[in-house]
Amino acid sequence: MKRKLATVALAALLAGGFVATAANPAAAAGGGCNNKSQNGWSIGTCQADDGVYVYPDFYINAKPSTPSTCKAYSRVKDLNTGTYTPWFGYTCTTGRKWGAYRVPKVAGHSYQHQVEIHTPYFYGTSPTTY
Question: Could you write out the DSSP letters of every residue in 84-120?
Fold first, then answer.
């Protein structure tokens, strides 16, 4: 499995594909991050685009001390069809949350990554990828 992942990563690198970096996870052909702060929460909702896939990720940069439990959810919307990926759940610890999935791009379609935090409810959206 590790060998297959290394081969895929090397092939993507050689093809000029998606390369995630700690400083800018959306440093690919398209994408970026939008930041939003409210009621003690600060999140960055991001997506990268290598021309073949959309790669969602997000950051919980700050959170209030209460409530002690919550859940963060992530999904990607195809803005042309109005369809969504399923929600993927994450813990509400601060830091980077890698997308648990990638979305195949359809030529001419636009995509937006959406993040919601429940208890309390808070949300953010990425820039649109075309």
Answer: EPPPEEE---SEEEE-S--EE--TT--EEEEEEEETT
Q: Which residues contact 89 (CB under 8 A, 6 or more apart)?
A: 71, 72, 73
4-62 residue pLDDT tens: 433 333 333 223 322 233 333 444 457 899 999 988 889 999 999 899 999 999 999 99
Per domain, the residue ranges of the chain are 21-125
What does DSSP assign to residue 79?
T
**pTM of the complete model:** 0.70
> Looking at the domain covering 21-125, what would its CATH class be?
mainly beta
